[in-house]
Design brief:
The chain is of the alpha/beta class. It folds into 2 domains: about 200 residues, 3-Layer(aba) Sandwich (D-Maltodextrin-Binding Protein, domain 2); about 130 residues, Periplasmic binding protein-like II (D-Maltodextrin-Binding Protein, domain 2, 3-Layer(aba) Sandwich), CATH 3.40.190.10. About 35% of the residues lie in helices and about 20% in strands. The strands form 3 sheets. Strands 1-3-2-4-13-5 form a 6-stranded mixed sheet. Strands 9-8-10-6-11 form a 5-stranded mixed sheet. Strand 2, helix 3 and strand 3 form a beta-alpha-beta unit. The longest helix has 14 residues. The protein is elongated and about 65 Å long.
């Protein structure tokens, strides 16, 4: 798959892109055209014959994958315009269930409340897994003590009633240093999954931390504070690995490796990075598929296994052939609804539930 300089610039999620990305996230309602859209570099006539808009919003975690897919799709179909917004998973579903978008990026399954909102609005949707991710707990490179944390320690830090504000309270031997926390906002699917996996309930979290739907705000906070901790998806960690470290996680299960397991494509693929490995999704409107040929074509492109290199290119773990085939079957058969019915995906194996 062609890797253009445009995408490398677009998907640079490090500190150089903070100003633009933070502005977009603060706006929280703006859908951003992918770079490469327009007629400057495109031929006058579209060889595919496709034209029109594809409107997408939602998860910042899924954004890099969808952005890469959108750019390549537009190269092949220059008369189409794919716009990708970043409102968080919850914000994206609010727009999707109001009929404002064709596709919603989601780093967790659609919730019971969102299912009801879509039903009330008459929005039918098809749920498509697109990749695996690993929520990464990140620390400043100067932090040489919290290189491995247990899930119990993470729960003690992030639980709703936590009073921990110093590293010395986390574990005996940790330094007497203030603990500063950064993380996603409550509209984020990453927030929902992390709180479910660590605290046992979606949304159960302390509130006294710096929250943002823009993962780059979390990056900047941890980079600038030796005593800070934050969490977000694997792609954002890998894009900023020169400035951040990821703590290994010990879930207490000896079957998942030798205690401390770091987030990586390999440990997600072999299921040893637990419980913070997860599937991520897109949801597409059935009406948009039927009424807009460009949406159908984009979904065919997105779910084609030959384009899975784009998933790996932006730092996520591609699905296997079996799951790609099942996703394509759901799309072709117009299998609407969610296989999770508002439930959790902690510990889920997609091949089994599909």
């Amino acid at each position: 798959m062609k890797q253009s300089a445009t995408r490398l610039r677009t998907l640079s999620l490090g500190l150089a892109g903070l100003t633009l990305t933070a502005a977009l996230a603060a706006c929280n309602t703006t859908q951003t055209p992918t770079e490469g859209t327009g007629t400057t570099d495109a031929p006058a006539d579209s060889a595919s014959g496709l034209s029109g808009d594809v409107l997408i919003d939602g998860s910042s975690t899924v954004f890099p994958i969808t952005e890469a897919m959108a750019e390549e799709f537009q190269i092949a179909n220059p008369d189409t315009r794919v716009t990708v917004g970043v409102s968080g998973t919850g914000g994206g579903f609010s727009k999707f269930c109001a009929g404002e978008t064709d596709i919603s990026n989601a780093s967790r399954p659609i919730s019971t409340e969102e299912i009801e909102a879509c039903e009330q609005a008459g929005i039918e949707y098809i749920e498509i897994p697109v990749a695996y991710d690993a929520i990464s707990v990140v620390i400043n490179p100067e932090n040489d003590w919290a290189t491995c944390l247990t899930t119990e320690e993470l729960a003690s830090i992030w639980s709703p009633d936590s009073q921990i504000n110093n590293w010395s309270q986390v574990r005996e031997g940790f330094p007497d240093a203030p603990l500063t926390l950064y993380g996603p906002g409550t509209d984020s699917g990453t927030f929902d999954y992390f709180t479910d996996a660590i605290n046992g309930e979606e949304g159960a979290s302390r509130g006294d931390y710096t929250a943002s739907e823009d993962d780059n705000v979390v990056v900047q906070g941890v980079v600038n504070d030796p005593n800070a901790m934050g969490y977000f998806g694997l792609a954002y960690y890998e894009e900023n690995a020169d400035n951040l470290n990821a703590a290994a996680i010990d879930d207490g299960d000896p079957s998942n490796g030798d205690g401390c397991v770091a987030p990586s494509t390999a440990t997600v693929d072999d299921s040893t990075y637990q419980p913070l490995a997860r599937p991520i999704f897109i949801y597409v409107s059935a009406a948009s598929l039927d009424e807009k040929p460009q949406v159908q074509a984009f979904m065919d492109f997105y779910t084609a296994e030959e384009n899975s290199s784009l998933v790996s290119e932006v730092g996520y773990v591609a699905l296997n052939s079996e799951i790609y085939a099942k996703a394509q079957e759901r799309l072709a058969a117009r299998t609407t609804g969610s296989i999770f019915n508002g439930g959790s995906t902690v510990g889920v194996r997609l091949g089994e539930v599909l």
